[in-house]
Amino acid sequence: MDNQRRDALKAGGGLGVFGLLAAAGLIKPEMAFAAWNKDAFDAKTMDAALAAIGAGKPADSADVQITAPDIAENGAVVPVGVVSNIANTEYVAIMIEKNPAMLAASFTIPAGTLADVQTRVKMGQTSDVFAVVKAGGKFYVAKKEVKVTLGGCGG
Amino acid sequence: MASPMRIRAASKDGVTEVRVLMSHPMETGQRKNAAGEVIPAHFITELTAKHNDKVVLSAEFGPSVSTNPYLAFKFNGGAKGDKMVVTWVDNKGESRTDEVQIS
């Protein structure tokens, strides 16, 4: 059997399906990524992630509270909540320092919505969790260490 | 098509609390399957929550968000029977929209 020919057919077939889907408008990468801040989600260091969301060097603030367990048994599901007591909070980002990509999630908070969000994130290992908050054009940050006994990435 | 989201929206003392549980693999693109091939990334990138056509929260997710993502938030206003609509889009361009009435 001609293995090379098989591979070529496979590769061609795969491309064909993708092309068809794209042509049919089922896959619209440019639309899906239109607003998504790729730079920030790709950032591999804390500074790069902060720069990508335009935060620069945020000030430490005691008015930003992170709700997360001290010890997470399962790194695949770590509940994290952020509450900001700073008036006019318009943006909240959750970053995990030791993950392959820092930024886990970001929230845009319009007027009338409380700066109180909760979600669940994956953590590869014990790390500091940062909450970056934007209020009145300024950035503030708080952190909390979460110890992970069983990693959530790959496992 | 992905499974429906489970959405709970409850109004109390003028504040509505919304809880959403999405059904999504949230594949990071870092894991490998048994044959050692990288499993392609597949995760929700954007989410929008609307109360009667007014956006009350928009979120961007990265692959670090857990499988079957959970999200809870609160906003001022909202009355029983109002419409709450949540939409997400993932990195493959798939999307899903579900709505509930505030209870």
TrEMBL record, chain A:
Residues 52-153 form the Ig-like SoxY domain. This is Thiosulfate oxidation carrier protein SoxY. InterPro entries: SoxY (IPR032711), SoxY_sf (IPR038162), Sulphur_oxidation_SoxY (IPR016568), TAT_signal (IPR006311). PROSITE patterns: TAT. The gene is soxY. It comes from Pseudothauera lacus.
